[in-house]
Please model this.
Amino acid sequence: MWTLGYGLSYTQFKYFDCTLNKELFTDKDTITVHVGVQNVGTRDGKEVVQVYVRDNVRSVLTPIKQLKAFIKVLIKTGQTSNIVLHIPISELAL
Model:
């Protein structure tokens, strides 16, 4: 799976190999998200990699999507950056 990012920079980014550290989590765990981001454009650029979550089984009214982790990285033309983001499960509680 991959997507192209068309952010506010003057270049393009390709996302690939997005994985989590495991499939089932306890309330004391931390989700670790790994994703590759490649600058496939013609200029160096900065990209903001973001992780959003949503509640599929709502017992309380919540926003459709919530930003839980992000990082801004400079990636030079043709280069790839391996991004790691951490989300404590406690931040997902209502």
User: Anything to note?
Assistant: The chain has a mean pLDDT of 88. Residues 38 and 80 are 4 Å apart (CA to CA). Residues 2-92 form a domain with the Immunoglobulin-like fold (CATH 2.60.40.10).
